[in-house]
Write a structure and sequence with these properties.
Elements (H helix, E strand, L loop, with lengths): L1 H18 L18 H11 L22 H7 L12 H6 L13 H10 L6
Helix pairs in contact: 2-5
Amino acid sequence: MKNITLLAICFLSVLTWQSCQYDWIDPIEPDIPEVVSFSGDIIPIFNNRNCNSSSCHAAGAVPPDLTPANAYNDLFARNHINLATPENSKLYTKCAPGGSMNKYCQPGDWEIMLKWIREGALNN
């Protein structure tokens, strides 16, 4: 009787294990532009993630001011851009994986920001 019970448990375990199916989902590769533009690539990140909304990083709210008219100057004025070591820029480290603002960023945001800083963080 014990052998039959053990055999039944093994058989049911195999059936249960074989019934599991996993679909592999390829991660989305971010679309990184060849040349990153502040107005064309960085500002849209701030706009699309609502970073510059009235409760977040708008004029008079939590610094830095990320509204389109003020973002560039305020990022530099508040030392959020480090041209010497771009990987240490606050703009990048806060959005990158493990950063305090990462939950608001989409895949690719931090790569675009880092590339823009590496390219000299131009106001283009």
